[in-house]
Specification:
The chain is α/β, with parallel strands linked by helices. It is 34% helix and 12% strand.
Amino acid sequence: MTESSYLDAPSRSTPETHLRSKQKLARIPIKVEPSVTQLRKPAWIRSQLPSGSKVASVKSILREHGLHSVCEEAACPNLGECFNRSTATFMILGDLCTRRCPFCDVAHGRPRPPDPEEPAKLALAIKELALKHVVITSVNRDDLRDAGAGHFAECIKQIRLHDTQTKIEILVPDFRKRVAAALSCFENNAPDIFNHNLETVPRQYLKCRPGADYQQSLDLLKQFKAEHPDVLTKSGLMLGLGETIDEIKDVISDLFDQQCDMLTLGQYLQPSPHHLPIERYLTPDEFDELADFARNKGFRYVASGPMVRSSYFAEHQTAL
């Protein structure tokens, strides 16, 4: 095995089990027509190449502990910048998602049972990276009775056994039809930040989030906040898929009505020609307008910009 292959996300070398692009999106309700031409990226869409010793070091630690990052699995454009700061968003519960969302580059397939050693491995990797703020997300696990919430809770427990000072942010799926069972798992192991992304406006859900429900996602944030009023809640949207500015503002208002504390807004970027096409690039001025609207609503923290992602510079978002 060469050094470069060792440092690549393992799932990208097994396309027969880890379905992406055309193979992944073959069975979704609304078919995505492959892009013949793509909109030209404007000057404000720029990313750092994922190279250098720090990038290699972070990837090496992930491989050593048998862990996954959503940065690699979802082909995040900020990977180079974040890994060069020795930060990563960990992805637990495997690298195979039970859903086929057409905006996402995480692989679809039949997942394996959760690794019972993963929470302890994760805690060790966080300690090795000396992270003071960690973001943990997961694939959708609709095959599990609690949709994976218990595994999140065990990760929180193990991290705090190693370092009680590390701030823990979890970015959870919607726990489809298992919300009560899922939230009960956090009764004694609540994170510092509970994040669930709405991703898009209600009109776009069938196209963008097949299998998800807008109201259910709002209710998840509302119910968690009701049970843990002192824990910050957070959500985010990806923009440029055909939504209007007024629709975005309506979603921002809906989130604030659920007592959501933190908001991220970023530009959707198409992972491959087979994914949902970008309908337009929002300008930096439009992102600023939306940020002002959210701040005037009363959100405690807002990050809004073309390259903003849910966990982008998340360690600075807790300085509220």
